[in-house]
Design a protein that fits this description.
about 375 residues; 24 strands
Length: about 375
């Protein structure tokens, strides 16, 4: 028969385990990201206050009905529960670990960021901006307005995936917080419905809006030097001095020199942490080996029925993917694409006034494990 003392210790243990479980399933802990547990995680999070209140009331009832000869024992149990609750709610949660910056942008002349750094870049309504990956790898999300359009810039360094979205749901402006991750990919929670949205493709994977997708905005991944040459009037995100220590830890991430199981790079091809360029067309997707691209610098290939050209700039960092009009074969010379007798800059803009520009395709540099899980 369960005594009041046993009931007290059991409920305290359950409260402690609940706080751990509430974070375990949505953070990169041993085994948590390889299981299909998103529904369990969302259920626990949604009903967290019901669990907490019910178990707490049961613990208080058992405590009042018990006669502890050593009062320090229940006090110690409560202290352990309090410590675990604090750690898992105020220290180890994603939005407490990764904080959005005070955003400052400078033009190329005033820019203080090394132009060899890689950035997520965008041109929207005639305005160009760049967000260095070194900063984004820590923040995961930056909110901005580009060409009068609200934009949500996102990056997941465990997947090495950068995406930009229109932060709106059903046509209404929305705000998001980093809530954790699923299958090693960052997840954001909207403030209106509490739905969880996957960073990799903007899809809601849990909650009332499950199945909906955020509008994605086209972006590029290039070195700042290359981007500035293409768009001299660009604005560039500057470091927020508050997070200098975190930026320092991301110093080697973009070059693949950072160590660690979560964000380190495998130099071999088609390993879990190998780099690929994932390309999307309306009908299908396909991944290309980064090592092969480094050796060739330009690949003329097919993605489904669409002829594509994947180009790598001379800096070995900037890449671009375009549809090949009429299946023409392209070559690359000094970061200029040449095909069918015409020349194009690295943004696909024609260097001949009478020729239409190349059509860029959605393309992303990622770890192979990320692209395989979400696109293959």
């Amino acid at each position: 028969m369960l005594t009041m003392k046993s009931l007290f210790y059991t409920t305290i243990a359950l409260l402690t385990l609940f706080e751990i479980a509430n974070v375990y399933f949505i953070m990169p802990m041993p085994g948590s990201q390889r299981m299909e547990t998103i529904n369990i995680a969302y259920f626990l999070f949604t009903w967290r206050w019901v669990f907490r209140l019910g178990l707490t009331l049961m613990a208080v009832f058992a405590l009042l009905k018990s006669d502890f000869r050593r009062p320090w024992q229940p006090a110690l149990a409560i202290l352990i529960w309090g410590f675990v609750s604090y750690q898992f709610n105020f220290v180890m949660t994603a939005d407490k670990m990764f904080i959005q910056p005070t955003l400052t942008l400078k033009n190329a002349a005033e820019n203080k960021v090394d132009t060899g750094r890689i950035a997520l870049c965008i041109v929207l309504n005639g305005e160009a901006k760049a967000y260095p990956i070194q900063f984004m790898a820590y923040h995961h999300q930056v909110r901005d307005t580009i060409g009068a359009q609200p934009v949500m810039v996102t990056y997941c360094n465990v997947c090495r995936s950068g995406r930009m979205f229109e932060p709106s749901v059903n046509g209404k402006a929305e705000t998001f917080r980093l809530v954790g991750m699923d299958h090693f990919n960052a997840m954001f929670e909207d403030s209106s419905t509490g739905s969880w949205w996957r960073q990799e493709n903007g899809e809601a994977v849990a909650g009332p809006l499950r199945g909906q997708v955020l509008p994605e905005l086209p972006c590029w991944q290039m070195s700042l030097g290359q981007w500035i040459r293409l768009y001299p009037n660009t604005l560039i995100m500057q470091p927020d001095s508050t997070f200098a220590e975190h930026y320092e830890k991301q110093q080697d991430f973009e070059t693949g020199k950072k160590k660690g199981k979560l964000t380190g790079t495998d130099s071999l091809s088609w390993a879990e942490k190998s780099w690929v360029v994932g390309v999307e067309t309306p009908e299908t997707t396909r991944a290309f080996d980064w090592n092969e691209l480094k050796n060739a610098r330009i690949l003329n290939d097919m993605v489904g029925e669409t002829p594509v050209a994947i180009a790598l700039a001379g800096d070995g960092k900037s890449f671009a993917v375009f549809e090949r009009p009429g299946g023409v074969v392209f070559s690359l010379q000094n970061d200029t694409l040449i095909g069918g007798g015409y020349r194009y800059d690295f943004a696909g803009r024609s260097l001949h006034g009478e020729t239409v520009n190349l059509r860029p395709l959605p393309a992303y540099q990622e770890f192979w494990h990320s692209w395989r899980v979400f696109h293959e």
